[in-house]
């Protein structure tokens, strides 16, 4: 390996007393280092020591083990990069580094540094031009790892990213498993919400066994991209610099587009998780979302749950728009230039049994209206949805109710929906004939001193799956159960419908056919969708319509003999009686 000292550096070395060319974080002088220029591939096991500053002048491929011992420093010329391929690995964190005090982090005491040749803070003026130049994001290329086994421990990666938008400062591909612990990524260029490939650390191609924990990201464009092959343990995305808190331009943990999760856990950080594209939870696997986690979604982005989603909060979990600065800060990096709105993202779609969604807030979803809502359970599968909040979600009309904020039209009978609050949505809730609803859900909230309801204020019945063929109960809420667009609500001979005290059932045309049992509590009413006097304005048209005789047919009793129209006194505005 050739060792070359540029003339200015040589003169500086002659002028300075030994050991005075730089100081460590304690202010003590450190010994000068030789500069070693590296221009060839690493094809045999090699060690770079803390005695030198290594300058990578161009592309290097590593196909053997490259060990960085002690406090090794690697500087890169413009666009220079390292590629680790099959058979290769970079190992950092010597016994000396491991023996340091745990309180000394990579920020103050890195075991290795990957930085720009213009970075005079990293052991001096390697390019020999004094203060004529200064380092900047994008000065050098990247470290690209496509083989398992690399370990970056207590390393600093600074001023990389010149290969944007194609790759970031550190990128892992081909399902390689690497370990990145207690490192710092700062002032790295690249990555936008529209093209996340050039994140400071791009793990979208990393494999199972990858470890990423204890790292610090600040002053980057886009800090971190992950996939679903590994857990993401605690990392930090802000730093105190000169008395100021410095984050990243797009301050979030970004999900690699259109990828699959396999048994992973997301824990709470100082930034949200951001999904750009489609996240799929594979069959027979679980995505566990921890308490206080915020998940933000880009335009039309969604989660498809073919396995299980466990979002079981204690204080709360949030699913919201990428533009929602009120949740987790300004993740899209544009200040107040944009604001969240209903329909910003698609939804969470559950097509398997076993998901638990507790104390979760869903806001600004519904981009797939009119086809589906913000949270949907389908395929006759069951989920538990408890103590959540659904607010300002788009979708669902009386003419096409598929895009209600919560769509249980295809849910199984074991589905549980209790203790939730719905407000500010177009249509809050869609059910079918086999899901029971108790009296614990609310359909309004006090927001800034005002009572906010929903546009189509009701619990709406699915247009395809509305036969009551099991034992079903409907509890009283502040809104009615609404049968839309000439729907026939049938109570099957094997089914039973129990209506709690105060329940109101409204019809927009159509009728109710009773072949099984209907048990009514006190003060139950069957009436027109236009009857705003009972359980409010389900039609969402204010006073534009009024109920009238013949708005719907009535209740048709078919209990073993010829059918006949019921003459109950609690039937209003029907043709019969």
The level of helicity is under 10%
Alpha-beta content class = mainly beta
> What is the arithmetic mean of pLDDT?
91
The unreliable regions are 1-25, 94-106
Distance between the termini: 99 Å
Radius of gyration: 31 Å
Oligomer state equals single chain
The rough form would be described as elongated
Short description:
This protein is mainly beta. 2% of the residues lie in helices and 35% in strands. It has a domain at 35-256.
Describe the structure.
The protein is mostly beta strands and 577 residues long. The protein has a domain at 35-256. The chain has a 17-stranded parallel β-sheet that branches. Strands 25-28-31-33-35-38-41-44-47-50-53 form an 11-stranded parallel β-sheet, with no helix packed on it. A 7-stranded parallel β-sheet has the order 3-5-8-11-14-17-20, with no helix packed on it. A hairpin with a 6-residue loop joins strand 54 (555-557) and strand 55. The longest helix is centred in the first third of the chain and has 9 residues, at 7-15. Residues 1-25 and 94-106 have low confidence and may be disordered.
């Amino acid at each position: 390996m050739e060792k070359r000292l540029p003339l200015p550096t040589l003169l500086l070395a002659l002028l300075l007393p030994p050991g005075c060319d730089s100081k460590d974080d304690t202010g003590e002088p450190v010994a000068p280092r030789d500069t070693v220029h590296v221009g060839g591939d690493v094809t045999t096991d090699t060690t770079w020591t803390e005695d030198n500053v290594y300058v990578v002048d161009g592309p290097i491929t590593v196909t053997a083990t490259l060990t960085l011992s002690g406090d090794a420093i690697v500087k890169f010329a413009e666009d220079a990069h390292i590629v680790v391929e099959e058979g290769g690995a970079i190992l950092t964190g010597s016994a000396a580094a491991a023996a340091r005090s745990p309180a000394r982090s990579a920020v103050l005491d890195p075991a290795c540094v990957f930085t720009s040749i213009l970075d005079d803070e990293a052991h001096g003026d390697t390019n020999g031009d004094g203060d004529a130049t200064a380092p900047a994001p994008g000065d050098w290329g990247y470290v690209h790892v496509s083989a398992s086994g690399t370990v970056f421990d207590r390393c600093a990666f600074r001023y990389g990213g010149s290969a944007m938008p194609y790759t970031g400062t550190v990128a892992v591909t081909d399902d390689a498993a690497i370990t990145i612990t207690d490192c710092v990524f700062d002032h790295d260029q690249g990555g936008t919400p529209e093209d996340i490939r050039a994140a400071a650390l791009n793990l979208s191609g990393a494999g199972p066994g990858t470890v990423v924990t204890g790292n610090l990201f600040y002053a980057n464009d886009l800090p971190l991209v992950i996939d679903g092959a590994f857990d993401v343990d605690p990392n930090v995305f802000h730093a105190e610099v000169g008395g100021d808190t410095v984050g990243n331009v797009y301050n979030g943990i970004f999900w690699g587009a259109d990828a699959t999760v396999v048994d992973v856990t997301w824990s709470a950080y100082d930034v949200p998780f951001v999904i750009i594209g489609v996240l799929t939870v594979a069959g027979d696997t679980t995505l566990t979302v921890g308490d206080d986690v915020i998940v933000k979604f880009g335009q039309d982005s969604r989660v498809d749950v073919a396995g299980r989603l466990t979002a079981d909060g204690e204080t709360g979990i949030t699913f919201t728009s990428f533009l929602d600065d009120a949740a987790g800060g300004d993740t899209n990096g544009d200040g107040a230039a944009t604001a969240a709105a209903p329909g910003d993202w698609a939804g969470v779609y559950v097509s398997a049994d076993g998901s638990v969604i507790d104390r979760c807030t869903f806001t600004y979803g519904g981009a797939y209206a009119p086809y589906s809502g913000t949270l949907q359970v389908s395929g006759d599968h069951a989920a538990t949805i408890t103590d959540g909040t659904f607010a300002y979600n788009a979708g669902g009309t009386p003419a096409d109710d598929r895009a209600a904020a919560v769509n249980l039209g295809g849910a199984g009978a074991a589905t549980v929906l209790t203790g939730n609050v719905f407000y500010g949505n177009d249509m809050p809730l869609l059910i079918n004939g086999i899901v029971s609803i108790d009296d614990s859900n609310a359909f309004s909230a006090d927001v800034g001193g005002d009572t906010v309801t929903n546009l189509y204020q009701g619990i709406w019945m699915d247009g395809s799956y509305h036969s009551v063929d099991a034992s079903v109960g409907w509890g009283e809420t502040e809104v009615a159960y609404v049968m839309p667009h000439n729907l026939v609500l049938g109570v099957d001979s094997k089914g039973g419908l129990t209506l709690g005290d105060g329940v109101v059932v409204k019809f927009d045309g159509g009728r109710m056919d009773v072949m099984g049992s209907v048990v009514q509590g006190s003060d139950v009413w069957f009436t027109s969708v236009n009857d705003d006097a009972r359980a409010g304005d389900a039609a969402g048209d204010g006073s534009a319509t009024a109920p009238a005789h013949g708005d719907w047919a009535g209740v048709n009793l078919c209990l073993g003999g010829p059918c006949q129209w019921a003459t109950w006194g609690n039937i209003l505005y029907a043709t019969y009686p």
